Amino acid sequence: MFIVYNNNMKPEELIRHFGSVEKAAAGVGVTPGAVYQWLTAGEIPSLRQSDIEVRTAYKLKSDFTTRRVKQSIKESRKRGA
């Protein structure tokens, strides 16, 4: 298994949303160590992002969601909507 990272959902956003590393970890069901690893990497694993998206009531968007929205806008413009 490999982990795919993205460039949209950043660990700093997650921490800002919850207020601290410890609260972010508790809020998304991981250890503070995992959040620190994401900070070091500068990215959150894509498989974890979908869960974070749901747990933050969609305030933080996963890379997949961001791509889908951009694609939908692009397709709407092509149709002249």
Brief summary of the model shown:
The chain is an all-alpha fold. 65% of the residues lie in helices and 0% in strands.
What does this protein look like?
The chain has a single domain (11-79), classed as 434 Repressor (Amino-terminal Domain), CATH 1.10.260.40. It has 81 residues and is mainly alpha-helical. The protein is 65% helix and 0% strand. It contains 5 helices and no strands. It has helices spanning 11-18, 21-28, 32-41, 46-55, 63-79.
Topology:
Blueprint: H1 11-18, H2 21-28, H3 32-41, H4 46-55, H5 63-79
Helix pairs in contact: 1-2, 2-3
Which key features would you list for this structure?
81 residues, mainly alpha, 434 Repressor (Amino-terminal Domain), Lambda_DNA-bd_dom_sf, plasmid, DNA binding
CATH topology call: 434 Repressor (Amino-terminal Domain)
- Separation, N- and C-terminal Cα atoms: 41 Å
Shape: elongated
How many domains? The number is: 1
Number of helices: 5
Q: Could you report the average pLDDT, rounded to the nearest whole number?
A: 85
Largest sheet: none
Based on DSSP secondary structure assignment, what is the total number of beta strands? 0
In terms of per-residue confidence, which ranges show pLDDT below 50 for 5 or more consecutive residues? 1-6
CATH architecture, please?
Orthogonal Bundle
> What is the alpha-carbon Rg in Å?
14 Å
> What is the CATH H-level superfamily?
lambda repressor-like DNA-binding domains
Give the helices and strands as they follow along the chain. Answer: HHHHH
Strand content: under 5%
Quickly give the structural class: mainly alpha
Keywords: Plasmid
GO molecular function: DNA binding
Pfam families: P22_Cro (PF14549)
